[in-house]
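Regression check, PRP case 216:
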Amino acid sequence: MTLQLRVYVPPHPLIKHWLAVARDAATPSVLFRSAMTELGRWLTYEAAREWLPTQETTVQSPLAACPATLINAEVPMAVVPILRAGLGLLEGAQTLLPLASIYHLGLVRDETTLEPSSYLNKLPDKFHPETRVLITDPMLATGGSIMRAMEELTQRGVDPSLTRIVCVVAAPPALQKLSAAYPGLIIYTATIDEQVNDRGFIVPGLGDAGDRTFGT
Ligand code: PRP
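Current build output:
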């Protein structure tokens, strides 16, 4: 079987609603943060569907024993927010994945060259090969930042097929780069926008997600 990058855009009214709120230039920072939290929650919910490890067991109800399924807490789970903007999605993701370790990765693009540089890296030296990793970053634009993040993760033993990316707006340049390098990867996004302008902004996109999240 040939592996292919899969990009899911869940057709959910709550995801559409919060995307509209986030896109609206009139949305103030406090509400933009709420939109990011909600999008983080619902996109993580969708991503968790076939990614969270489970185990079959039996539980005793008040009336009888019955088969049951539990989250397998022995399989390591990690969330990697790409700072700063990825922090906006983290809170919603974390409510669904309370047992996951959070490893912060700070990346910022040079405004002229659009090359990302790393200013904070809290990743462990080595991940357990079974680790389920969820990356949060609302924007996949030129793809420089997500490619850098994937490089940092895979060189520490992360399996791309056990990795999910939760983002809000994905653009073709980033998807093409990811598809060429990591064909087994799966992405959950609220939308795919067609264009990235010459300043590296997705159009229509939602502007600078980091600045809008933190009111800077
Ligand atoms: C933005 C965004 C992504 C990145 C996407 O971050 O949050 O991380 O750009 O662009 P790319 O696909 O072209 O690399 P930015 O560098 O503005 O930092 P911030 O999150 O601190 O605002």
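Comparison notes: The chain has a mean pLDDT of 97. Residues 6-52+71-214 form a domain with the Rossmann fold fold (CATH 3.40.50.2020). No diff flagged against the previous build.
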